[in-house]
Write a structure and sequence with these properties.
about 325 residues, seven-stranded parallel beta sheet
Length: about 325
């Protein structure tokens, strides 16, 4: 199924996010120039926990800095999303699903497993067309239909349009996955401009709100919404003040919306991942810092997207979680 042309709003959002990134990159370069005697690879040598049936990549990760919004196709060290160990069993057979940020990272991994479980998948994404086309190929290879819908989730009109297109293409909507996000670190609160705070809040919180509001009229009893939270929303993060605040808001939004929609028979849950190897983080951290991404977890490494996506299947599939609503499921790589 074909995708639409990129919208002017999406182009403007990409330009804004790249400008925010350049400003922070400049601050980071100045900070590195002033730093002396700082240990670089403090966690090197730590034994990382294995993944499903194999050893997973562990720090040091590939030193690479991506321009926002970040293309998975450009990552030197590719994320693992295919989950070859995961066997589908029809848990979502006949379901129509919509995944925001579905072009890459966690969203791609979720889209692949949803298709493997029998679902059709509409993918909402900003402008990462190359990644989105690849994800469509993967979904269709699993036997699912795939619709690509580029645009900006900050725009409520676009969100209504995206839901309408998915319903028109598939005849219904059973699952909404809110996953699209913006993240840019800051060393100090003084570095957080109102513009940057607003971009993070409107993408991560307003985007979830707009998509949920657009989707609910089309969701029937037994349908579900799965939101992507974060360990930063549970524990905070000293250099992700705005991002952490939005993830905490998403957790509260999840629990509140679950209560609000209970009488309609619509379940709402969230997954709170720890560090995951996706384009989001190399498009945030400088190359020298991203090398140690995930090393601080108890497992000593970041998750791969294929280690997070089964949780999204679990929470979407009524056969697994029909009696679960309003939870935030931590998948963090750390004890507690």
């Amino acid at each position: 199924m074909s995708r639409d042309k990129q919208t002017p709003d999406a182009q403007e959002t990409v330009r804004k996010q790249q400008r925010i990134q350049r400003e922070q990159d400049h601050r980071d370069a100045e900070a590195r120039a002033q730093a002396k005697g700082q240990p670089d690879d403090a966690n090197e040598g730590k034994k990382a926990a294995p993944g499903p049936h194999r050893e997973e990549p562990a720090p040091p990760m590939s030193r690479q800095h991506l321009a926002k919004p970040g293309l998975e196709a450009e990552m030197a060290q590719k994320p693992r999303f295919a989950a070859p160990h995961y066997q589908g069993s029809g848990k979502l057979a006949g379901f129509a699903t919509l995944v925001t940020g579905g072009d890459s990272g966690i969203g791609r991994a979720v889209s692949v497993l949803y298709a493997r479980e029998g679902a059709d998948v509409a993918i909402v994404y900003l402008n990462e067309h190359e990644d989105a086309e690849r994800t469509r190929e993967l979904v269709e290879a699993e036997g699912g239909r795939c619709l690509l819908i580029p645009g900006d989730v900050k725009d409520p009109a676009f969100c209504r349009e995206a839901v309408a297109k998915a319903v028109k293409a598939f005849g219904k909507l059973d699952v909404l996955v809110n996953n699209a996000a913006f993240q840019e670190h800051a060393q100090a609160i003084e570095d957080l401009t109102e513009e940057r705070f607003d971009e993070t809040l409107r993408t991560n919180v307003y985007g979830y709100f707009h998509m949920a509001k657009a989707a609910v009229p089309h969701l029937r009893r037994g349908a579900s919404i799965v939101n992507c939270g974060s360990v930063t929303g549970l524990k905070g993060s000293k250099h992700l003040l705005d991002y952490s605040a939005t993830k905490g808001a998403i957790h509260a939004f999840t629990m509140s919306l679950a209560a609000n929609l209970m009488d309609k028979g619509i379940r709402v849950n969230a997954v709170a991942p720890g560090p995951v190897w996706t384009p989001l983080n190399p498009a945030d951290k400088p190359a020298d810092e991203i090398a140690q991404f995930g090393a601080g977890t108890d497992m000593g490494r970041p998750a791969q997207p294929e280690e997070i996506s089964p949780a999204f299947v679990f929470l979407a599939a009524p056969c697994c979680s029909s009696y679960i609503s309003g939870i935030v499921l931590p998948v963090t790589g750390s004890v507690g």
